């Protein structure tokens, strides 16, 4: 994990699909779990979605709250 990945979760948006335009940190857990089952996309987007899945799965979304205030 890159040190800036948490910041990216609250600033980058989903570039395609049902939740296109939504910030990655705001994606529903079920959508992230679907990617976990089907396979994450390649590259940075896939890495960020996998990280967000782990954060959501372990009920750690609160860790992102201070980053949203910047």
Automatic annotation (TrEMBL):
Pfam families according to UniProt: QSregVF_b
Domain of life: Bacteria
Family matches, as InterPro entries: QSregVF_b
Protein name, UniProt field: Cytoplasmic protein
Organism field: Salinisphaera hydrothermalis (strain C41B8)
Lineage: Bacteria, Pseudomonadati, Pseudomonadota, Gammaproteobacteria, Salinisphaerales
């Amino acid at each position: 994990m890159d040190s800036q990945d948490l910041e990216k979760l609250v600033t980058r948006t989903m570039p395609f699909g049902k939740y296109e335009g939504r910030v990655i940190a705001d994606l529903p857990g079920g959508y992230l779990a679907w990617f976990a089952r089907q396979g994450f996309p390649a590259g940075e987007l896939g890495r960020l979605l996998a990280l967000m899945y782990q954060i959501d799965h372990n009920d750690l979304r609160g860790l992102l709250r201070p980053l949203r205030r910047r």
